[in-house]
Design goal:
Elements: E1 2-7, H1 16-26, E2 30-33, H2 44-48, H3 61-70, E3 76-83, H4 89-102, E4 107-112, H5 117-122, H6 130-146, E5 150-153, E6 158-162, E7 176-179, H7 183-192, E8 195-197, H8 203-220, E9 226-231, H9 236-244, E10 249-253, H10 259-275
Parallel strand pairs: 1-2, 1-10, 2-3, 3-4, 4-7, 7-8, 8-9, 9-10
Antiparallel strand pairs: 5-6
Helix pairs in contact: 1-3, 1-10, 3-4, 4-6, 6-7, 7-8
């Protein structure tokens, strides 16, 4: 099992370049940056919660990942996650291909349909149709990454033949990891994803969700898919459970208030992995 780091990269605390270099130098496999374009004022709970204001202060994922790509050489770089329905798929396909090009093929595309319905509505998205929209967007982006002259004609996404370069370094495209544990999200992960990327807090609940996802994968056929587990609070027991379930990658949320707290977190996570006998990708 590889071990990566996730972070809310904002305009405060440890900068993206220092974060990326620190994570790579410590030996971790990957760095994932989360994303929201904004927080609607109606969602006061997000400002007053355990991470007050962080969602509203997030840097643009792709700009920040470009910085991370420029100052690292080995670290895989990903979105954790990108709320795809909020984007134009032609523009998003270009952003993904650009990051994969700039990083030399190190990008991992974590995607989700979103949960903040007010944010989705502000982008003109009907929340009830976000999974349908994302399914078409993923297919459309795959066509853009694959085809010299790409076109797509769906119910919600429609465009005539286009030219768009660069194509991704990774073929046929960077790994698409679909997040979420709702039935529509699990179905999208089984149908369109190269892997599933749930948020895991409880081993028993994860086992049930994993069984549902595997059933859907079996229904649609295809090759085996990997699991990337995002975890906020990781301990020895949960780490061992994830390893037992053959999770390919565990991504742990890192504090980035200041360099000292980040260093303490990185050292503690390394020690936890060592106790479990896992090399984490070093």
């Amino acid at each position: 099992m590889k071990v990566g780091v996730a972070a809310w990269a904002t305009d405060r605390g440890v900068g993206v370049a220092d974060l990326a270099r620190g994570v790579e130098e410590a030996g971790f496999e990957s760095l994932f940056l989360t994303g929201h374009t904004h927080v609607p004022v109606s969602r006061r709970d997000l400002m007053d919660g355990t991470r007050p204001g962080e969602d509203a202060r997030l840097l643009d994922q792709f700009t920040a990942l470009g910085v991370a790509a420029a100052c690292t050489t080995r670290l895989k770089l990903g979105t954790g996650i990108c709320v795809v329905p909020q984007y134009d798929p032609i523009v998003l396909a270009k952003q993904v291909a650009t990051i994969d090009h700039l990083s030399g093929g190190r990008f991992v595309f974590g995607v989700g349909a979103g949960w903040l319905v007010e944010e989705l509505r502000n982008h003109g998205v009907d929340p009830s149709r976000r999974w349908d929209l994302m399914g078409e967007q993923i297919l459309a982006m795959k066509a853009i990454w694959r085809d010299e002259e790409a076109e797509f004609h769906g119910e919600l996404v429609d465009f005539d033949p286009i030219w768009s370069w660069p194509k991704p370094v990774q073929k046929p495209h960077p790994p698409v990891l679909v997040g979420g544990s709702s039935t529509p999200s699990l179905r999208l992960a089984a149908t369109h994803g190269d892997g599933w990327a749930p948020v895991v807090a409880d081993a028993a609940e994860f086992a049930r969700e994993r069984a549902r996802w595997q059933t859907l994968c079996d229904e649609v056929g295809g090759s085996a898919r990997e699991v990337t587990a995002f975890v906020e609070d990781l301990d020895d027991a949960l780490f061992a459970a994830l390893a037992e379930f053959d999770v390919a990658r565990t991504v742990v949320l890192a504090p980035r208030d200041n360099p000292a707290t980040l260093r303490t977190f990185l050292d503690g996570t390394l020690a936890l992995a060592d106790r479990g006998g896992l090399p984490i990708g070093r």
